[in-house]
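Sequence only, no structure available. Ideas?
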Amino acid sequence: MKPLLEVDQLHVSFRTYGGEVQAVRGVSFSVKEGETLAIVGESGCGKSVTARALMGMIPPRSGQVKSGSIRFRGRELTGLTKLEWQQVRGSQIGMIFQDPMTSLNPTMKIGLQIAEGLIKHRKQTKAQAKEETLKLLARVGIPEVARRFEQYPHELSGGMRQRVGIAMALACHPQLIIADEPTTALDVTIQAQILRLMKDLQQQLNTSIILITHDLGVVAEVADHVAVMYAGVVVESGPVGEIFDNPRHPYTQGLLQSVPRLVAGKKERLIPIDGTPPDLFRPPAGCPFAARCPFTMEICLDHMPQAKTYFDRHEASCWLNDPRAQRAESWMVAGRETHV
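Reply:
I predicted one. Tokens follow.
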């Protein structure tokens, strides 16, 4: 069976006064039906730019999908016109934004904002759209739906607004939902509720999800597959269990070492990743993580390693995994010791 979504060698750049920013540089991944893919990495690594490219939301005045392929159910999306993208967004691919206070229209009642998509994409009457909207609000756990239908975004709490955002994304029954850091602006208790809600709705509707996040705790909770991005490149990807238990890239290991773990009777100091990401005006010729990596070799600076497949879609791009690398054995030992 073919994947629902296939992204192959995607390149996205932005034009600025200082030059061209190569924000996404050859990203490839796929998403199966009913699967949750988490794209993780630190701020500025290209996660959100990738998500917006999948929605056709790169601003044409400053940005451009320079090359690569985005295939959804076998259909190429990169060459779609503005009108064709409008037919795809919402009805086939939905999006949950990071901050619902800025993504929701502050001048429109929330009920009308959800109903708008039903009227446009599913050709419902206003009465039918209102009835469907009330059902959606109840489905995402909002009480007193008739009263909430008439309220404006500023009258709702952050958690309620995010539930409205989820209802909007689900309204037209899309096969794929892109959630761009949907819990970042919420407190821990509400985060858990939103994640549980998304997981339950996915199981009920068999919807695929791409989750953009920097929180590895969230990844462990909801994801099936993980893609680790750094400086516009996917440096490692694989099933969530493989990535957590057997990381094959130093950046992935660094991310895992910076996450606090609860171990009874044992105190552990968090290990930060020293240094800063490379300048994407002038990306490095070799591995983008080489300047920060404690295992850097000469070849890392000059040549980008090819992705190597290990087990069940587990891939990593790192010269340390090359059998010719002198430090390959010690690197793998260090990785296992870290995650025992």
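Residues 332-340 have pLDDT under 50 and may be disordered.
Hope that gets you unstuck.
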